[in-house]
Design a protein that fits this description.
The complex is a heterodimer of chains A (about 280) and B (about 250). Chain A is α/β, with parallel strands linked by helices and about 280 residues long. Chain A contains ten helices and ten strands. The longest helix of chain A is centred in the C-terminal third of the chain and has 19 residues. Chain B is globular, with a radius of gyration of 22 Å. The chains are: A alpha/beta (about 280), B mainly alpha (about 250).
Chain lengths: ~280, ~250
């Protein structure tokens, strides 16, 4: 009723076209939230973009990711996915790829069955195996469907986990340091695979990582977080051409410039004592 | 090769037994020789007494074991879903767990009578604890990441339990299932000895008081064979419900 007739003002707000919106998110642990972790975070992820989140160690990146996915209820503030508030579980269209693939893949299911599990809320039963085979193909594991996850290398297991995420017909992939536990060569390969798949399947991606190089290389924008209680320090635009290239992109002056900026911000935070600052206002 | 070792070990045990017998230090009334025991077993089998006792004892143990599994798992699941249940049961379980089956018979035989109810009660009461304790710690030991994974794909609480938590906990639970299977059989034999009118335990006591030592030895041997049978049964079941884990154990150790 009180909606303005002319909504041209809305068009230039930064939240326009966002798939995921985080508003004033707070979360504390301990009795009555004595250990504040998230201290009022706000940012959004636009449709189709690759958003990296970096911050100093222990700034509550995993807590943030669990809150984004609805697996952890925030103390205040909210998460909106496709214009609906996320609460009481992960909404359809959102999938998580965890860092610890060895604890996230089901060891009693074959690779194929693990991927089929990803479709439990979506695909029609008769289509599932054919679709899983396609996804296996797209992550380069088409001949490993009948293997068990524990028969594969770390990088291969993480590719299975990515395929399982995509299997849920996700629009948003939440990536919780998915490559922290694999070797450098594999990491570069899977980074490029992720970028390729994100484009191919039109995924919006939110990548939480410790690795500033990775954050900048992958992203359209980088969200830099502060120490606990965590807030957004800055959102950095990564205006590097696509497709990215492990050698070319990382040698560009612009890449180094952005990397320098983000790295400095993270490093400065690391030196700071994470005590509540007296008299600080919103 | 493994079989050669096994037969060798068996041969050694029988040799020591025979040596003891032929040394003459123990009267044959108390220690019959291996062939005497074999003959006694054959006699028991021919008279049909052994077969009848075997069927009775085995079926009692099997039904009791099945009931134990159902109740033990159910209790562990209840404790997983409602944590206060688990907390409340803690000290009670520790109190009840060391009670031997032989002590249970005198306090329940008058209330329940010498029938299947008594056997089931005794079996469940002594065999449930390994299953309950192991299952309850296996369930709560399942990685939170695995549970979060299930939930992130839209599993409800019950779906998470059936599709994620139980499959992951199964290999651990199976270890205690083997233990419980053996205890179930032992409990039935003990109950039969103390309060039974038939079954292997009853027959064993009857022959013992008649000083038919060879029969007693034969029946004890039969108990051992039954234990092996039970174990094989559980192993077969394990392969069926958690074959992946056996393969994983084999391949990862390689």
């Amino acid at each position: 009723m009180s909606e303005p007739l002319f909504s041209n003002q809305k068009a230039d707000t930064p939240e326009h076209g966002s798939l995921l919106e985080i508003t004033d998110l707070t979360k504390g642990y301990g009795a009555a939230g004595t250990l504040p972790v998230l201290g009022g975070l706000s940012f959004s992820a636009r449709q189709g973009e690759f958003l990296s989140i970096v911050g100093p160690s222990g700034c509550g990146k995993t807590t943030l990711l669990l809150a984004l996915s609805g697996l952890l209820a925030p103390d205040s503030g909210n998460v909106t996915f496709k214009n609906a508030i996320v609460s009481g579980g992960t909404p359809k269209g959102m999938a998580i790829v965890f860092q610890d693939y060895s604890r996230s893949l089901f060891p009693w299911k074959t690779v194929m069955e693990n991927i089929v599990f990803g479709m439990r809320r979506t695909a029609d039963r008769s289509w599932r195996r054919a679709r899983a085979a396609e996804l296996l193909d797209s992550v380069g594991l088409n001949s490993f469907g009948n293997h068990y996850p524990w028969q594969l290398s770390g990088g291969m297991q993480q590719r299975v986990a990515i395929a399982r995420g995509l299997a849920s017909e996700s629009e948003l992939l939440l990536l919780d340091e998915p490559l922290a536990a694999v070797d450098a060569q594999t990491r570069a390969d899977v980074q490029d695979l992720l970028l390729h798949l994100a484009q191919l399947f039109g995924q919006t991606c939110v990548l939480v990582t410790h690795d500033v190089d990775e954050a900048v290389y992958m992203a359209d924008r980088v969200v830099v977080l502060s120490n606990r209680p965590t807030r957004v320090i800055e959102i950095v635009d990564v205006d590097l051409p696509k497709p990215r290239d492990q050698v070319e992109t990382k040698e560009q002056a612009r890449f180094l410039e952005i990397r320098h900026k983000v790295l400095n911000q993270v490093r400065n935070m690391r030196g700071m004592i994470s005590e509540p600052i007296g008299g600080e206002t919103k | 090769m493994t079989w050669a070792y096994r037969i060798f070990a068996l041969a050694i045990v029988i040799s020591i037994w025979e040596m003891l017998f032929w040394s003459g230090r123990i009267p044959p009334t108390y220690l019959p020789s291996a062939p005497m025991v074999g003959a006694a077993l054959l006699g028991l089998a021919k008279s049909g007494a052994a077969l009848q006792a075997e069927i009775l004892t085995l079926s009692r143990a099997l039904v009791g074991f099945a009931l134990t599994l159902v109740l033990g798992l159910w209790l562990a699941i209840l404790g997983w879903v409602y944590r206060p249940v688990r907390e409340a049961l803690g000290p009670l379980v520790e109190l009840l767990r060391p009670i031997p089956p032989a002590a249970l018979v005198p306090i329940t035989v008058f209330a329940l009578g010498s029938n299947i109810k008594l056997y089931l009660f005794v079996v469940v009461f002594v065999a449930i604890w390994p299953v309950y304790l192991t299952a309850s710690s296996a369930l709560s030991g399942v990685s939170p990441i695995l549970i979060q994974t299930g939930r992130s794909f839209g599993c409800s609480r019950w779906e998470t339990l059936w599709q994620v938590v139980l499959p992951q906990a199964t290999p651990d639970i199976l270890v205690s299932v083997r233990v419980s299977a053996a205890i179930s059989f032992i409990a039935v034999v003990v109950a039969e000895m103390l309060a039974g009118r038939n079954g292997i335990g009853y027959l064993l006591f009857q022959r013992a008081f008649a000083v038919q030592t060879a029969d007693v030895f034969g029946l004890v041997l039969l108990c051992g064979v039954n234990g092996m049978l039970f174990n094989q049964l559980v192993m077969l079941g394990s392969r069926f419900v958690a074959g992946w884990h056996l393969r994983m154990a084999e391949e990862v150790s390689r």
